[in-house]
Amino acid sequence: MIAAQAGFISILNYLLNYYRGVDTEVRDPRGFTALIKAGLQGRDECVSALLMHGADMHAVDLVQGRGLKDWVLRTGRFETLTRIRRLQAHPVAKQFCESYKPEWPELKQLVEKATAPRTSGQKLRQRLKESLTFRFPQDPQDNGVMDHMVRITTSIHSPLVATGSRPLCPTSPPEMGKRRFAIPELLEKHSTRELEETFGGCSLSVSC
After folding, report:
1. Is residue 17 part of a domain?
2. How far apart are CA 90 and CA 100, in angstroms?
3. Taking CA atoms, which of 27, 38, 123, 143 is between 20 and 30 Å from 159?
4. What are residue 175's phi and psi, to 5 degrees?
5. Measured at the alpha carbon of residue 43, what is the angle toward residues 41 and 45, in degrees to the nearest 5?
6. Rounded CA gap, 202 and 72, in Å?
7. CATH number at residue 63
């Protein structure tokens, strides 16, 4: 709870991944959970880590009966609210599944649009539009090329990941609201021989 409130994401991830039985729903005297306290302080990374570890997003404090989103809005943590909404829009880390295909669904449509034949009038309108349009810095689009690049480089099919680690449960990717097992719990569920045959010299990647 202290690590989440203070924004110590490395310590929080270490506790969640390496200590069995960590209760994310423990409350302080006012009834705040670690998730609510992280949201109050605007600790985006800690909020994401707790949600992807199975913390209850709908839990409310015992004094005012407010939930995570209520407190985030009340304290003006709009970046944290944006992070929560993005997680709700994409609650499953599909790139950690064996069935994930490293393809950008919109690429084919964009290529067809760019290479489609145009009339002289359409070309003229396009040039006028480009010359009269002011370009201002914008945030990356949802499901755009930046999101696709992140998914590709972190997927289990990426050479950067596949050569160094393998998921123990490739059919059960991290999901918002679903509790993940800590490494000691996974070692109890799977025998040493099974782990050696599965991973060999690779490191264990927790995704159950």
Report:
1. yes
2. 14
3. 143
4. -140, 140
5. 170
6. 40
7. 1.25.40.20
Written as tens digits, the pLDDT of the chain (208 aa) is 888 889 999 999 999 989 888 889 999 888 899 999 999 999 999 999 999 999 999 999 988 999 999 999 999 999 999 999 989 988 888 877 777 777 777 777 777 777 888 888 877 887 877 777 767 666 667 777 777 777 777 777 776 665 556 667 767 788 888 888 888 887 887 766 666 555 554 555 555 5
Q: Domain for residue 193, yes or no?
A: no
Could you list the beta-strand ranges (E) of the chain.
165-167, 203-205
Residue 97 in domain: no
Q: What is the pTM of this model?
A: 0.72
Burial status of residue 47 (CB atoms within 10 A of its CB: 0-12, 13-18, 19 or more): buried
Q: Tokens at residue 53, please?
A: 């570890």
Q: How many whole angstroms separate alpha carbon 180 and alpha carbon 26?
A: 17
Neighbours of 150 (CB within 10 A): 12
Domain tally for the chain? 1
Would residue 21 count as lying in a domain?
yes
